[in-house]
Amino acid sequence: MGFGVEEEFARVRQQRIEGKNVTGDLDASEELLKATLRAMEQNIAENATAGQLPDIKLPTSPDPALTPGLVVMSILQAMRCNDSPYENHGIEVLTRFTSSASSATDTDEPSFRKYCDFIPKSEYGILLKWDAIRFKPLEKAGKKALQKIQLRLADSNEWVTVKFALSERTTFLGETWLLDSFLIARKN
What we know:
This protein has helices at residues 5-17, 25-49, 68-80, 89-96, 109-121, and strands at residues 130-135, 139-141, 144-153, 159-171, 174-187. It is an alpha+beta fold. Helix 1 packs across helix 2 (25-49) and helix 3 (68-80) packs antiparallel against helix 4 (89-96).
């Protein structure tokens, strides 16, 4: 992420995993981290409107500090580079961010292999084959959010609308935005 944000993000996350009390300077640190992530999200969204995600390493695991928009951007970045740093890493990141409401939460090895075989051959293959992106305004109501985006197919320059439905769920880390579903809406 740059500017020490990635290190701070990891430190706060580790504190939560270890069950340490998140008060005092950790609260201040977390607030600074959230403010930095919001600014980063705004910058990414502005640049993405022009077609490209900037070259920033986004988180690959859920965390309470992530906004719904950053969850979607993290998934998209990982899916676009699906086989880096290893085969099907992007699809693995997608499954990490899915909630219990999603059919993609079954992560045993045979189910994951089937999912990895299914995604590229289905309409959801667009998540692996895009070269430009347009974000629509995030719609948020309480613990639910809807992020509409348009992805341009790399091989045809055709724009496809994708809708991501997210919800804020209680996890061992705290209240965390997770993906409930995504839908390929239509080709434009």
